[in-house]
């Protein structure tokens, strides 16, 4: 079916792939290793937070009723009966006319119901037997009540959430020294093509160095997969079948680059005609990368990306990253597209939606999508500048500067400024 | 100077810190380990890219002059003299009336000056001794010329750039098996306070588990530093001086959390009065985290963050991340603030600029900044939701929904939808 492929949309292609994916099992890791992993189950608050009434500032714990008459001119004097540091358990219950020095995070003494900060007392720098209270306090003022932030038993993080630094903090607070996480999917990776040299090989006429494998390996790891690199594969179909079958035993998904088009030696394209293979898709309504292919072999998915570096990069973001996130059990498998105003006109006709590499620009609260001026998909030199894909719909007229376009953000925006003149 | 600190702006504080930082030396790493590192020098194209005239598609290499009369109705028939796969060196120069089958990425044969794709020939699926060319070609059509993407000697990536997946690809293409990168800075990390328990210790009255160290450790590693965790430090000033002096020998910068306020046991605050210490700042016009402190000791910077988890988190992004990026020699040390429309009104008065945690929302190309509804800085449970800080200027009236506000984006936007009703 070299020249008679059935074209489907990016959406349909991704759907066909995702519905064939299982989910990884789980494992426990020490919390120190949990950053960037995916929670394998809901996590609960093991205690109230805070788990005792505490002071949110440095000052004096008082009985509010004792401060009713206090003013800057006529401060109320209270007897200081104790100093309570963070970590201490107070030993003295406050009686009428008494106060305790209390530090940020320290436990409120019995009898106290309000806290005044040092700066609102007389002579805040002095440590003395008495304190002058310069304003009245309401019961409960400046007291962090037990459980006011989080009640014991509340869900603090959900299954399928990425564990970020904030998640680490809340898990540590509730004593989760070990965290149940989803096992990282093992993503096999190889390139096809006898023209490929390794990075440390000298160039010879007709051949080029393999750039896709190192690029994809970095992206796989960054997306949360374990990249397993296999040697470049020759273009012999029988050898390829045997090799891929062996590799598939070791991985959850196999990602290849190259060999998907209509060339005489395009082994991944040829493979889709074999009886052992179940084709998921091999022609997608998109530029670049329309021959991007996926098939099932030995019950496992192969995602065969284009060998063109730009198309390979796009194919990773459209198909491989969601695959890794889905296998990882992530809540959000697909990046939400947003809308932005096109920063410069792009009027080149295209029969399919075109994904331009670029970046987001912000001006007075309005989002602009700046296409990289070098639109050549194969241009290796500008891959590193890409932070998003700008989707130009199919058709003959493209989009004008200022038109709203769909944007797929694939990297953290660096909020670069716009290139070229302002609109 | 417990109650008489000099207040400075966030900008000034960061400036005072950054001007005291040196730059790390460099080292060579294998390209497989280079992702996320910072380039230590400019990198150059070692060859032209492509380094030979090549075909960007699967088809036939021809002499354009032979195709002048070709049309769909009257195809020109050419003799096929060779098949050139990617990686091959062509062996036959094209004579008049001849063509070579040529695959994507393959070297152009001598004599050829244009390429026609299979689909524009007669019977594209057949491999035959002749080919029917169904349209005329211009000289140079569909030929990727040597050096057309990048000329030998061009800078392909600059000193101080982060090495992302695209950088990996271009470095691999030019044969950089080893890459000069800036050494990762060693960031010491400890918490102060006897109230802190480790994550695996049971809670006891008055004490809490340490959440800042694990959170900061994850953030330091993510920002490109090597976190070195030291034990919690007691609040004895003399012991602290000795301990910190020892730790500083092992690190480039020391980050602490806690002990910066006006409490009786705030050891980091007390340290700034010691003759060995040179104070950089200890009061910043911001909420939360105004007592965030920095000092030089033994010629090395200490950044003493607030122990309050929300203030600690903010202090990391405002001061520690730029420190790590600066030590790493990164081009962009500071995150550019952007503007967005405030999604909901925030009218609480504040004497200093207030940094609200939140996230960016996009609606029809307009950016909105959505504050997290729980504004309590100490609220550990919502740290994980934060993707940006929304800066509410000092003053009595705050900002209304729809007002433009400054936003500091600290994590990749997940483009969540807005909470609450639409404007």
UniProtKB/TrEMBL annotation, chains A, B:
| Requisite cofactors | Mg(2+)
- Indicate what this protein is called per its UniProt record: Molybdopterin molybdenumtransferase
Give the classification, highest ranks. Bacteria, Bacillati, Bacillota, Bacilli, Bacillales
Instruction: Look up the record and name the pathway of this protein.
Output: Cofactor biosynthesis; molybdopterin biosynthesis
Q: Name one GO molecular function term.
A: metal ion binding
Where is the chain membrane-spanning? none
**Its biological function?**
Catalyzes the insertion of molybdate into adenylated molybdopterin with the concomitant release of AMP.
PANTHER family membership:
GEPHYRIN (PTHR10192:SF5), MOLYBDOPTERIN BIOSYNTHESIS PROTEIN (PTHR10192)
- Name the species this protein comes from: Brevibacillus nitrificans
Q: Which UniProt keywords apply?
A: Magnesium, Metal-binding, Molybdenum, Molybdenum cofactor biosynthesis, Transferase
Q: Which GO terms describe its biological process?
A: Mo-molybdopterin cofactor biosynthetic process
EC class name: transferase
Query: What is one cellular component GO term in this UniProt entry?
Result: cytosol
Q: Which NCBIfam families match?
A: Glp_gephyrin (NF045515)
- Catalytic function, reaction form: adenylyl-molybdopterin + molybdate = Mo-molybdopterin + AMP + H(+)
As recorded in UniProt, its EC number(s) are 2.10.1.1
Q: Which family does it belong to?
A: Belongs to the MoeA family.
